[in-house]
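Case study 2.
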Amino acid sequence: MTAAFLGACAPMTPEENVREELANLREEHRALMAEIQALRGEMRRLAAGEAGPPATLTPDEAPGAIPPAPALESPVRVAGAAIATVLDAYRQALEAEDLRRVEEVYGGAMPAEDLRYLEIWFDRTDQLRVTMDPRAIDVHDGTADALISQTMDYRLRRTSEQRSVRLNVRMTFERRGDEWQLISVQARR
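Prediction:
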């Protein structure tokens, strides 16, 4: 009986410490992944122009998830919502194959490289459908960078072949007055 009692009080071995730390990290990872999923859902909802309270996770949807902090209207959160609106306007302009509307998203003339790229897409494709999944939006002092997973489904004009292309793009934005404008779009490797 004494041996069992003493064994229970013995310090943990390094291997046990590592296992316990790994279990804690896995639990924290699950909670963070659940929060990321909720934020992605909220971004999609905002990009679609849907109103309503932000999506929250129930304990059943994210076992072990740490409850999200109360939603605050921080400048970063407001900027993220505004940028999601700009992303949706850009997506709609692409699908309409309307360079004038794309230029509005840019707040004026777009960079020559971006213009040439879009002219090629619009000349060679039909039935363009674009899905934009924001992976990260980093807001700085008056600028922002967004990492976007962009899928473009289209039909080749010459062959009528259906195609789909998935791109990872980095979009840079600048705040002008109360509005955010797109500055550039770059494909990432």
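The helical segments are 2-9, 14-47, 75-95, 99-106, 112-124.
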